[in-house]
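During data preparation, a discrete fold description was generated, and the record follows.
___
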Amino acid sequence: MSKKALQVAAVRGTRDLWPSELSKQLHVTKALASVASRYGFGPVQTPTIESTDLFHRSLGDGSDIVMKEMYTFQDNSQNSLTLRPEGTAGVIRSLISSGLQYNGPHKVFYQGSMFRYERPQRGRYREFQQFGVEHIGSAGPSTDVDVISLARDCLQEIDLLDRVSLEINTLGCHESRLRYRKVLEEFLEKYRADLSIDSQQRLDRGSVLRVLDSKCDNDQRILESAPRLQQHLSDAARQRFDDVQGGLAALGIASNLNDGLVRGLDYYSHTVFEFVELKPETGAKGIAVLAGGCYDDLVALLGGPATPCVGWAAGIERLCLLSTQQPPSPTMIAVVPIAAGDSATVTAVRHHALRVAKALRDKGHTVHVCDGSSMKKQMKMADTFQCSFAVLLGEDELHNDTATVKHLHERQQHVVPLPELAAYFKPSALP
């Protein structure tokens, strides 16, 4: 078999991540989890595969995800399974199947792979990492504000706050949406022939509100004169949204009302929001980096009791794309056995190097053992690992219970007693 035949590329829309990139993703995820923990949220984990029916029921048969983007297959028992396209439905399914829906409230966060068959582009992949939070079982504007505040603090933690803006809207209560859907549908039917094919299909499926989210310029021109949901809110829904905006203002969180923001999933209600990238060079808005809202009907839709919920999710790849913050890099130390002489001496020096490396690691240092056939190759290995120091260990060091520490960036070296070696690499002890 030829070498060419053995080459298998990664699936389109997926990526291989090696330490330089993956370390940033892990750093961002850890930062978000740390902030969520300070808000009292705890980790939860659900399966990557779920019953396909879960997403048909939760996301809606007419949603773009269900119609175009899910990775669905049948297992050997002819069960229809789907790689999860988002995390909320799985968390709520787990809540109900575990019998936890009656002893809330629950505050959880999750992270993991999600899958959507979309056209790969900047910040968008077919397998992507998502971090999300769910506040389950507490109702009211204060909970909405608290969850948005958590999102803001997460973005601040990774130095992204000055690169995004908060867009906010309300979808109102169920009755408000029913009234508005009827009025909007009557308006759009007048312009059906001028709407994009996607928007016409959304009208046919009954996904009227999704037309507001159209990316077609001509659709948006038509929508400029469309009736507004704000005009059809119930008094209670309007008061709730006023309270949310007032709570955000009290925390000093700036927001922009965007009455075209509807989110793409059927389960949303009341407050919805997105943190959207700002492009300083043009002043235009870019990709949404974090988005969410209330979903008070989802638990009941999946077989549980009526339960208020609010949450959000963020794509880790998009956060890493925009954030210039880098994970802290540990000081790399190379332990270099200088093996010469008879085989017994060579073996003794190499074993000694392994013991020294372990002792340094036990004290929390990051250590590479750079063994090889020549000093030149060993030092090249230390450079490849981006080591700042090389601990040279030969026969003399073995007998004298010392180590020769070479500063690889400063062209100097020092002989250090072996018992003092671990402390030598603390910043305060460096000469």
Remarks:
- The chain is about 40% helix and 20% strand.
- The longest strand covers residues 106-115.
